[in-house]
Amino acid sequence: MRVLIKRFDGKKFWFEEFDIEVNSDETILEVLDKIRNKKRDLAYRSFCRSSICGTCAIKVNDKTILACKTKAIDMAQNNEIIIEPVDRSRVLRDLVVDHSYIEKAYKDNELWFVDKIDFTKENIQTPQELKRYDKQTDCILCMACYFECEALDFDKNFAGPFVFTKYFRFVFDSRDKRDKQERIELAKKNGLYNCINCQKCIMVCPKQIASAFDIKTLQNNDKNPPFAVAGLDEMNFF
After folding, report:
1. Angstrom distance (rounded) from CA 6 to CA 95
2. What is the pTM of this model?
3. What is the CB neighbour count within 10 angstroms for residue 37?
4. Could you tell me which CATH class the domain 2-97 is placed in?
5. Is 157 exposed, middle or buried (CB count within 10 Å of its CB: 0-12, 13-18, 19+)?
6. What angle do CA 122, 127, 131 make, to 5 degrees?
7. Are the beta carbons of 65 and 57 closer than 8 angstroms?
8. Confidence (pLDDT) at 233
9. What is the CATH number of domain 101-220?
10. Do residues 184 and 228 touch, judged by C-beta distance below 8 A?
């Protein structure tokens, strides 16, 4: 298989070509490992190798994927794959990009659980209450949705799809004691209504989370919307 990798040394970008044998069950990450055995200065991220840590997001043939989860054969076009660092990010070296936005997003959007501790009883919830937001807890912060988000091309201050999925997780958690509308107001300040509904976040999420749906649902549950959100009147969870 012909593999083209976009590289960066801190000053310039260039493509480097490799020809390697690829088995049908090998992932993109395993292909990178093979290449790195020959090219020791190739830089990329990998930790868990099991689609949990979210650090190995890269762009392959113009689509953001997790390298550890995606088979090379599934991405190949004419027995060729082009591997690049993800879009809408600052490249540090080769395929390694700056992930510091995750910490900033958590702080700016106050994405943490708020509880009033009562040591005399458990803070419990029903299975039905858990089901409201259970899928959103699958987010592994790989930022694949963020790297593909076209809304960022128009609004650099748009928080990004995964951020609003985190908002969803807290807004619909019955145990969280922060006022729901207060959270939504903060989400609005960070671009809740600036989503252009391109659906790219849904197409690339390795955990099949529909962040576009999460955004629309938060909009629908906004008691003070800047404009009406059509077609979602039936989704009132409050």
Report:
1. 8
2. 0.90
3. 10
4. alpha beta
5. exposed
6. 120
7. yes
8. 45
9. 1.10.1060.10
10. no
